[in-house]
Amino acid sequence: MQKTEPENAIIKIQNVSKRYHMVNALSNFSLDIPRGTIYGLIGPNGAGKTTLLRILAALIGPSSGEVWFEREEVSQNPSSIQRKIGYMPDFFGVYPDLTAVEYLEFYAGIHKIPRKKRARIVADLLELVDLSAKRDELVETLSRGMKQRLCLARALIHDPEVLLLDEPAAGLDPRGRVELRELVRSLQSIGKTVIISSHILLELAEMCSDIAIMQEGRLIASGDVEKISQHVNGGRQLEIHILEVERIPLAIELLKEEPGMSTITHEAGNVLLADFIGDDQALHLVIAKLFSKGIPVTSFAPRRGGDRLEEVFMSITEGSSPA
To answer: For residue 133, what is the DSSP state?
Structure first.
């Protein structure tokens, strides 16, 4: 069958459905995953995120539809695809009698990595995930964050092109989440494509280059955060900081006069929020007008991704709780 994926897509999901008895986990789901991205999957309980990741990992097959990995259709040669995919599930499993080194060497054997190469690969991965000092510790004695990093090392043992991470930050403290985020970014920098399922919306906004919002097995919206925000709200929301609070009323009046500006609110302190429809040239004219009228603007930028993503998510999913 001829591949129809766009040139920069490493994975193309075409009209995929998955049915479990009477439940549709995925319904006619289509999505392109560009090469080299960190792609986030967001959705409420039952959205189908884990089912989608398992299909991408060639662990289960779709009821209908196709998934292309580069020029291969996944169901035609799942073992070939699994050699190119590293999958980190949302549970660790029980390995009470293995040390960190033994754990990784066990999976190196599963992936048929030659024995003479295993020690070097395991050592490099433990260094990558900052667990070299724990190499001889029993897995069961490691903290939750260390187990997550060890599980990520396991997913990397065969040097896959794509990583699938299901709720990788679940249960981590703030430091663990920061460490995970930096690790994922470093993996992207060496050419990995990373697909992450998470309910921690701020983490996805700060980590991911693209997101897909899912609900009841369907794709609701996809793209980068700013484009999705513009699609949902008809524009972008700006956060404007005014140095002198007493000048805020005049700033609001001036903004109201500008075409494309709407819903201008004084959020708190010296911060204004405004919805804006228009291109960068129009935005430049707005900024120039404020300065020409003596408004001391100290910051003028789209609102932070995490804040906007929360709003977009709630708007699209009509108030459903993320999971």
So the answer is: G
